[in-house]
Design goal:
This protein is of the alpha/beta class. The protein has a single domain, classed as 3-Layer(aba) Sandwich (Rossmann fold), CATH 3.40.50. About 50% of the residues lie in helices and about 5% in strands. Strands 2-1-3-4 form a four-stranded parallel beta sheet, sandwiched between helices. Helix 1 packs across helix 3. It is globular.
């Protein structure tokens, strides 16, 4: 090996080591900011956390809660301005705990945290979606927003093994199911599929849980605004690219997709569906250890 080749190899290894160290430092910095903000945060009994595993209807229910507790104005640039992402805001430093003090009650927060990382005060709406549909939708988000270039089969393996942001879907759902059963007065458990087939009924359930009186007039308008069609016409106000203003080769306009059920069952192979069902039945998913906060703050 020539001295030039040796030097190039050494520089590449040094660069890779530096990049790993830089990423580790950035992770630690985010964790420190979040933990500091979590300690400083002053929860209110009226706080509402819309909690999900990603791609399970988070933004949809987040917007429904906003419509139920506001004047329904669409004057915000992005939904995060009126219903911020709890852990992400604190971890990135875009919001400090003191900033949340200026929000009128009831404050609405989006979260992908498991319940042990949330304040013990306030209420939560947990939205669960069919796991295969989540896997398919999450695959498209990874492709459009996170630079994933693998195949759908590659992604399915990662999903089944819990090698994704927010780790195992199975463990996340199991943890929230158990918590919902323990805290029936504080947690409303919803199915994404029920919102699809009976949006007015789901809105009524959410309103009753929040103690909001639905108006005698205007319910049709509320349902219209809560539809996927309405949200698509206001795509930039819900798209993460609006919030982060990233320009790194990502694909805008892909965040609110089709809002359908059953596509995962149609697109994954029979063997993949059998593997999914086997794990779901045994309730022993990969990656089901206790979460570190690092798992949520990529």
């Amino acid at each position: 090996m020539s001295s030039a080749s040796f030097a190039v190899g050494a520089l590449r290894r040094a660069g890779a080591a530096f990049e790993r160290g830089k990423n580790a430092f950035a992770d630690a910095e985010r964790v420190c900011r979040f933990l500091t903000g979590r300690l400083e945060f002053r929860p209110r009994p009226s706080d509402v956390y819309v909690a999900t595993y990603p791609r399970s209807g988070t933004t949809w229910v987040q917007f429904i809660v906003y419509l139920l507790t506001s004047d329904r104005s669409m004057g915000f640039t992005h939904i995060s301005q009126v219903a911020p992402w709890y852990e992400r805001s604190l971890a990135l430093g875009t919001k400090r705990a003191a900033d949340f003090e200026s929000f009128a009650s009831p404050r609405i927060f989006k979260t992908h945290l498991t319940p042990e990382w949330l304040p013990a005060v306030g209420r939560a709406i947990y939205v669960e979606r069919d796991g295969l549909d989540v896997a398919l939708s999450y695959y498209h988000l990874y492709r459009s927003y996170l630079g994933f270039r693998g195949t759908r089969d590659d992604f399915f393996d990662r999903f089944m093994d819990g090698r994704l942001q927010y780790r195992s879907w199975f463990a996340h759902v199991d943890r929230w199911r158990a918590f919902s059963a323990e805290q029936t007065d504080r947690v409303l458990a919803l199915r994404f599929e029920r919102l699809l087939v009976d949006l007015p009924g789901a809105i009524d359930r959410i309103a009753r849980f929040l103690g909001v009186d639905l108006p005698d007039e205007g319910c049709e308008e509320l349902v219209r605004m809560a539809s996927f069609e309405f949200m698509r016409t206001h795509q930039p106000q819900f798209d993460p690219l609006t919030e982060t203003q990233l320009d790194s080769g990502q694909v805008p306009g892909a965040f609110i997709r089709q809002g359908r059920a059953g596509q995962g069952h149609a697109e994954f192979t029979p063997s993949q569906k059998e593997r999914f069902e086997a794990v779901r039945r045994t309730c022993r998913p990969a990656g089901a250890r206790e979460w570190r906060i690092h798992d949520f703050l990529h």
